[in-house]
Design goal:
Elements (H helix, E strand, L loop, with lengths): L7 H11 L2 H6 L9 H29 L2 E3 L2 E3 L4 H10 L18 H14 L1 H4 L5 H11 L2 H13 L2 E6 L15 E4 L5 E11 L8 E8 L12 E6 L1 E3 L5 E4 L2 E6 L10 E13 L6 H37 L23 H33 L3 H37 L10 H9 L8 H13 L5 H17 L6 H27 L2 H36 L4 H18 L3 H8 L4 H4 L9
Parallel strand pairs: 3-6
Antiparallel strand pairs: 1-2, 4-5, 5-11, 6-7, 7-11, 8-9, 10-11
């Protein structure tokens, strides 16, 4: 049975060679501790923890799931013990503010570490998954008193956080939410309502759970302009900031899900629970976006890790499984058959997984690098530039990588044939676990509307123009390189077409707004392939330079160029279908009357 192994060489390639994070850290205040030695040690220790402690619990968690009772939710065997080890090692505070007990390392280091944890056991990793967003929301919007009470405990890992948005009658349309917040004489509020789909809303791994909850004040205006944000702890902190009295907030049930069985998804009942306003009244949705943007980037990484996990398992199987002979003659004549990795179609499936996992790693780590700048730079011009790029790339990373991660997980199962469909190999678990990532924190359709409607057309194309200019400069700088020419020539064509598609869809949407919705997902997928192509072209530039300089790792760098060629010749052309369907317009979607949808 293949056990997850952290792809440390590729992680180093992205961090040290592609993104040059050491120069990046040297340019930012507060990154002095992010030395090569420290980062290597974190990567190595994180790999050990992920492989030796978390990976063996992945199947256990899927089989046992979580158990609900009136007294709480019990996680699978070994989960709490692993979390205790995680806390004791100080991993919960890796990138958090030293003022509240953290180690203060950059987001990009935390992303590297988080990849290993999530790849080895995605369900377990989710107990800590919302803590970053909780801390960031408290840091940006909390009073100093609130920060002092909650942040040290969450940084320590003694307390964990959740995000409570969704209600049974409203998902994305938060303007319809009904949860109420009644003011008390002491400045607190009584929160009453029910929230659903709350990840880790109740569990037995931490001492307290801090819910960040959207609710309405009595005099709030209707719609999204009348939503406020509240801190609602499971146990109200006492005068010393320790666990105090039990708040009337409880888990009514946990969902029976397709995947992520070891991560409790809870129905949370707030029965006059004591809460505290976080940020300005009636500006809760704006405050919550701090949390949601953090979560969306984390979910984008989930797409990448499902591709990585599936690739590792299917690659090992393809090298070992004997089936038929190679079409060009036996490759292992001493055996009864050849390993299936000799067959072109198996190679196709493996290379697609590899190109998404490694390309997705470049994409996600680069976004983490941008977040470092947002959090630490003192140059407002640079921050504005990076913020524009993040605004454009966030919905692409979240939606495209999760869609491709799910597709990659399915390809891994296909590589196993019938064995993939049975549970013992754990590849079908990866398929089930990966599916939700396309849905939560905004479905692919929602991300697509955000990208095309708000981030591009809503800025009159400014954000897209800045990014296409960056691609254009890269292409111009490398067009005369014989190794890079085949890549940048194609990239130039797609980059030009990207802007043309915006003009066409935007013009149609001015006449009929449905044209925007009809084109949006196709446009997002086109954008995802193009962006990943840009990262692969940059990887070729690095690999070509290393090969010309002389290296003992020729196979590693040649594999980068070969995988990039596969992506450009086999994956990027899939955009032609998206262009064709975008150009058909909205009529073929909207002309059939709703009452004629029948069965």
């Amino acid at each position: 049975m293949t056990v997850y192994q952290a792809p440390q060489r590729d992680m180093k390639f992205v961090m040290d060679e592609l993104l040059d994070l050491q120069s990046h850290y040297a340019s930012l205040p507060g990154c002095e501790d992010a030395s090569p030695e420290i980062i290597d040690a974190i990567r190595e220790e994180g790999a050990k923890f992920s492989t030796n402690i978390l990976a063996p619990l992945n199947k256990v968690g899927d089989q046992q799931g979580c158990t609900w009772s009136e007294t709480g939710v019990k996680t699978p065997d070994g989960f709490k013990e692993a979390y205790d080890q995680f806390r004791e090692a100080g991993w919960t505070g890796l990138i958090q503010d030293p003022a509240y007990g953290g180690q203060g390392l950059p987001q990009s280091v935390g992303t590297m570490f988080g990849e290993m944890v999530a790849s080895s056991n995605i369900a377990w990793s989710m107990v800590n998954g919302a803590n970053g967003g909780t801390l960031e929301t408290l840091h940006v919007w909390g009073t100093q008193e609130q920060k002092n009470i909650y942040m040290p405990k969450i940084v320590e890992g003694a307390w964990t956080g959740t995000m409570c948005l969704t209600e049974a009658h409203c998902g994305t349309d938060l303007g319809m939410l009904r949860t109420k917040a009644e003011p008390n004489a002491d400045g607190s509020y009584n929160i009453t309502g029910q929230k659903i789909f709350i990840t880790e809303g109740e569990h037995d791994m931490s001492d307290n759970i801090i819910h960040i909850v959207l609710a309405r004040l009595p005099d709030a205006p209707a719609g999204v302009k009348g939503i406020s944000l509240f801190i609602v702890p499971k146990f109200v902190p006492d005068a010393n900031g320790e666990v105090g009295e039990r708040n009337p907030v409880s888990c009514g049930s946990i969902e029976h899900k397709m995947g992520l069985n070891a991560s409790p998804t809870c129905v949370m009942n707030f029965d006059g629970a004591k809460g505290y306003l976080l940020g300005p009244a009636n500006k809760g949705l704006n405050c919550m976006f701090t949390f949601m943007n953090n979560a969306r980037l984390g979910v984008g990484m989930q797409g990448m890790i499902h591709a990585e996990l599936g690739f590792q398992k299917s690659l090992a199987y393809a090298k070992d499984r004997l089936q038929m002979r190679s079409l060009t003659g036996p490759k292992n004549p001493e055996l009864a058959a050849d390993p299936i990795i000799v067959h072109p179609d198996v190679r196709r499936m493996l290379l697609q997984q590899k190109s998404i996992a490694e390309g997705g790693r470049m994409f996600i780590y680069d976004i983490a690098k941008m977040i470092d700048v947002m959090q630490r730079s003192d140059d407002q011009e640079v921050i504005k530039e990076v913020d524009d790029t993040l605004g454009l790339l966030t919905p692409i990373a979240k939606a495209f990588l999760t869609e491709m991660g799910f597709e990659s997980a399915n390809l891994a199962l296909q590589c196993f044939g019938g064995h993939g469909y049975v549970k013992e190999w754990e590849v079908e678990q990866n398929v089930r676990d990966s599916r939700i990532a396309c849905i939560y924190e905004g479905t692919t359709g929602i991300q697509a509307l955000d990208l095309l409607g708000r981030k591009i057309l809503g800025t009159k194309g400014e954000r897209l123009r800045k990014y296409t200019k960056k691609i254009h400069k890269f292409c111009e700088a490398n067009i005369d390189n014989p190794v890079l020419n085949e890549f940048v020539t194609e990239l130039q064509k797609y980059n030009k077409e990207w802007g043309e598609l915006v003009m066409k869809v935007g013009g149609s949407a001015m006449q009929n707004p449905d044209e925007l919705g009809a084109a949006s997902v196709d446009f997002l997928m086109y954008s995802g392939y193009l962006v990943l192509g840009f990262y692969w072209a940059q990887a070729v530039a690095v690999a070509d330079k290393k090969l010309k300089e002389g290296t003992t790792e020729e196979d590693f760098y040649n594999a980068k160029i070969t995988t990039a060629r596969f992506f450009f010749q086999r994956m990027l052309p899939k955009t032609r279908g998206y262009v064709a369907t975008m150009n058909t317009g909205a009529a073929n979607l909207m002309d059939l009357d709703a009452e004629h949808f029948s069965f």
